[in-house]
Design brief:
single chain; 329 residues; alpha/beta; Pyruvate-ferredoxin Oxidoreductase, domain 3; seven-stranded mixed beta sheet; 11 helices; globular
């Protein structure tokens, strides 16, 4: 916005009175500005890691930024955002490093690397909003590279295709048990980050990660250290790159939305040809009646927002309403 003000001042006849940051549709004094403009050094790598409190993501990223700052010629900076009730709340790690001095003291809004250590997080659809075109996205996923695309929200698919995101997946929960590290995947994601970013040669990165592990977990005993070492050794073997399609046409349509939530006859109808669907829906049996809502002490009936009247029938028009089916028992 400040740049927009200077651009206006550079004009031959700039506005004498102006507003910035709001849309003044009455007196039309608003200045236009480029919301994608950034003062960041293009050589600086900007990474965002989203996680949940107590999953180890913040601790692993603190180790990562220390390794980059001390073992490479890069300048490094890290900020970590989490709720005061850290355990279970969403955390965000902002890592910034590059060959030139870093004078920025603000959080990252345009990231060249985004990692999601948990497959399902609050606001997961928004995690790629800060990603710049061509950014790298690393996702911990229980699905393989061949399966994961159809499991993602369509909004996320569209954003990845529009920005030409470089997409990697790893099943950290599969690697964890192999290394006897349980569900702790912070070390696994850290290893993948170094492998993808190339900030250090692979062997050197692994060596430095293990040094940080020894320093961080040494006081917990050799067994814990060895489990984390094993997680590092197994991580890269399970890292996969996902090839993006040209359009966000997945099977996340009405069948995917109601999968597992609708009665069997609905699945049978949707499996038929479009020409036969109208007849099938008109003759479809009624779904089971919803249980009677509880009656409160005041004698008034309480109706749940998700309950349906007994004997409800599905019309052809309802077939197009996926949200209606999603609410069915």
């Amino acid at each position: 916005m400040v740049k927009g003000i200077y651009d206006e001042l550079a004009k031959a006849t700039p506005k004498n009175h102006f507003t910035i940051g709001i849309d003044d549709d009455i007196s039309h004094t608003s200045l236009t500005y480029d919301p994608t403009f950034s003062t960041e050094d293009p050589k600086t790598v900007r990474a965002l890691f989203y996680g949940l409190g107590s999953d180890g993501t913040v601790g692993a990223n603190k180790n990562s930024i220390k390794i980059i700052g001390t073992e490479t010629p890069n300048y490094a900076q890290g900020y970590f955002v989490y709720d005061s009730k850290k355990s279970g709340s969403m955390t965000t790690s902002h890592l910034r490093f590059g060959p030139n001095p870093i004078h920025s003291t603000y959080l990252i809004t345009r990231a060249s690397f985004v990692a999601l250590p948990q497959f399902q997080l609050p606001r997961e659809d928004e995690c790629l909003e800060a990603a710049i075109p061509g950014a790298v996205f690393l996702l911990n996923s229980p699905y393989s590279a061949a399966e994961v695309w159809d499991k993602l929200p369509k909004t996320m698919q569209q954003e990845m295709i529009a920005k030409k995101i470089e997409f990697y997946v790893i099943d950290g929960y599969k690697v964890g048990p192999r290394s006897r590290n349980g569900t702790r995947i912070n070390t696994i994601m850290q290893t993948c980050f170094f492998a993808i970013s190339g900030v250090l040669p692979r062997e050197e990165a692994i060596e430095q990660i293990k040094k940080a592990i020894k320093k961080t977990y040494g006081k917990r005993g050799e067994a814990v250290v060895q489990k984390n070492f094993a997680a590092v050794d197994h991580a890269l073997a399970h890292l996969e790159k996902v090839e993006l399609p040209t359009t966000a046409e997945s099977n996340f349509d009405i069948v995917g939305v109601i999968s597992g939530k609708a009665p069997k006859f609905v699945h049978d109808v949707l499996a038929k040809s479009p020409q036969d669907r109208a007849t099938s829906f008109r003759s479809a049996p009624s779904p089971p009646a919803a249980p009677s809502p509880p009656v409160p002490r005041n004698g008034r009936s309480a109706t749940s927002r998700n309950s349906f009247p007994s004997g409800i029938r599905i019309s052809a028009s309802s077939a197009a309403n996926a949200s209606w089916f999603a609410r069915m028992p």
